[in-house]
Amino acid sequence: MTGKLERANVNFVRPTPNYLLLFCGGLVLFCLLVGLIMSVMAQNLGLAVVFLISSVCLSAFAFLNLREVKKIAVSENVKKLDWDISLPENQRQKLTVEVLELARLLDITDEQMSDMLSAYIVAEDLALRQIQQEAKMPVMRHVSIADTPFDAVLVKKDLITCIEVSFLVTPEINQQKIEWMLRKINTVKENFKSMKLDPKIRLLLVLVTQLDQEDEAKLRSTLVSKFNSTTVDVDIRLLDFEGLQKIYAMD
User: I need a labelling partner for 140 at 20 to 30 A (CA). Which of 99, 123, 156, 202 fits?
Assistant: First the structure.
């Protein structure tokens, strides 16, 4: 069974418009516009300016409030959205796939697999620390959202960021891996839709690398083309493994 993150429950609901307030506001705006027209016709410039400023201020107030109505709000009065802890089997499976891929690329021996495993775990941990530091908010690690597991999830205001971490030793990322990540974020969107929820969602791909400047530039140029065809909101963050160790693991 999966565990529940009791302190990480977030509830999403679209605020219900206050139609009476909107009607009253519209009526007041109508009266101000009538007063503005009559002031202009009466050539009372001072009164016309007062009506004009009042109309603009009320219109701006209404616009800002209507925009807020369209946003996703965090509310304590609606059904809770639970975050499940990813099963150890799922975490282990993902880790195994990543490490075996690295082992193949580096042509390392079985005796070196333990060191590679440790390096990957450290790289993921340091990368998520950096993302958390930049966001100035805690990330939830190894959780499932809408029945879909991610390395981490970050919730900031009305935006849910689903984070996937990968360790690269060559200036290339497997296209199948990209498609797998995109399928996961699309699954989240579809599951939210079935629950009648519509929060803002993005995929943050964090790539921890050990590349020189030339290879990193090559990687950046190829990454752009790999995501051209997707309609999913995707951000990509490249982090240098050695740099992360200097920040978090070394004096």
Answer: 99
3-state class of 195 per DSSP? coil
What is the rounded distance in angstroms from the CA atom of residue 20 to the CA atom of residue 11?
A: 26
CA-CA distance, 2 to 84, in Å (whole number)? Answer: 6
CB neighbour list of residue 34: distance below 8 Å, 6 or more residues apart: none
Provide the token pair at 213: 């400047």
